[in-house]
Amino acid sequence: MQIYLDYSATTPARPEVIALMQTVMTEEWGNPSSLHQWGARAATRLEQARVQVAALLNAEPDAIVFTSGGTESDNLAILGVTRRYATPQHLIISSIEHSAVAEPARILEQQGWQVTRLPVDAQGRIDPLDLKAALRPNTVLVSIIYGHSEVGTLQPIETLGQIVQAHGAVFHTDAVQVAGRLAVDVQRLPIDLLSISSHKFYGPQGAGALYVRPGIELVPLLAGGGQEFQIRSGTQAVPNLAGFGLAAELAAAELTVETERLTKLRDRLFEQLANVDVLVPTGDRRQRLPHHVSFYLRCADGDQLTGKTFVRQMNLAGIAISSGSACSSGKLVPSPTLLAMGYSERAAKSGIRLTLGRDTTEADIDWTALVLKQIIERLVPQSSLCLG
Fold it and tell me: Which Pfam family is an annotated match for this chain, by its short name (predicted)?
């Protein structure tokens, strides 16, 4: 039995998406900036995708700037705002941001910017009072991840956004794990910039978007022909973006039913593993992504028995899970997220993540729980190396 439980890393493109991309590549392959009929066909397809992606967020189509994915969207948000200032100012991020936000912030700090990294509690949640206290007169940007890929925790984004809005700073959120899995309404939420990625909800890799609230000015990262409303130059990848658009439309149509189904499967897996003392859930159990299950191993052995050990063992059993985030899966270092949540270095090397998707069934959940228990019985010592 082959079971894929790493949907937070990437999702398989839907058959409908693949078919549409093939059509676009063979019949609508023109440059959308060209004035002839070949260009017009591509431009029409591009704008249809923009409408579809905008609808997923309840946004106006002109507020959607297409990018190559979540990383570019995050960078465009952080650097696009901060490059408006001739002298370094102050920005705020959380201590558990994805590297696509944390790294630009680190680079800005080296350039003289003041960067505050908000702490989180043991569940990975930010206290809004900490955000209030961190704001300064020269705070120009706040970026807080919406739903965390490693521990599944959802932040109180509406409350945080209201605080930032009242201060007069720009508020950005990385919603890559949320969009297509939970309802996101930018007309209601106090969000100025929001990043999403196609391949997290069954679209192709290499396509993403940044929602830009009207009135927010960004300095482009790329100098060129001025595509994407003069914000993101470069000929658009129309086949990818067409697939992105269709994936967004399908996700929106199925959102309510699929979110409920995934939540039930998620809770079923947590329940089946609740009596395994070695597995300690991480993240907030209530304020949580609907498809996300994560643990750390109470009994681990330094670098010998880590989360990655279990990833390998589960893979041998035909089950794909993850240790930490996919972007750092090649590094045997403690998870910065778990460290920020107060875990020891040993515990922070032992995190595992199981994320569910469209093809996940109850039988998959039951078999996965059984296999994981068997691996634990075989590999984990009974007492001498328990972390407690």
Answer: Aminotran_5
Q: Which sequence positions are flagged as catalytic?
A: 327
Rounded to two decimals, what is the model's pTM? 0.94
For residue 154, give the DSSP letter. Answer: B
pLDDT one-digit tens code per residue, 125-136: 999 999 999 999
Domain positions in the chain are 3-9+255-379, 15-251
Per-residue tokens: 223:
């100098």
Is residue 338 within 8 A of residue 351, CB to CB? The reply is yes
**Is residue 214 predicted with pLDDT exceeding 60?**
yes
In this prediction, residue 300 carries a pLDDT of: 57
E strand segments, 190-307: 193-197, 208-212, 279-281, 292-297
Integer CA distances (angstroms), 68 to 86, 97, 207, 210, 338, in order:
28, 20, 4, 10, 29
Please, what is the end-to-end C-alpha distance for the chain in angstroms? 34
In tens, the pLDDT along 245-273 reads 999 999 999 999 999 999 999 999 999 99
Region 3-9+255-379: CATH code: 3.90.1150.10
**DSSP sequence for 47-95:** HHHHHHHHHHHT--GGGEEEESSHHHHHHHHHHHHHTT-SS--EEEEET
Among 244, 218, 217, smallest CA distance to 53 is for 244
Q: Tokens 């996965």 map to which residue?
A: 368
CB atoms within 10 A of CB 4: 19
Contacts of 373 (CB under 8 A, 6+ apart): 273, 276
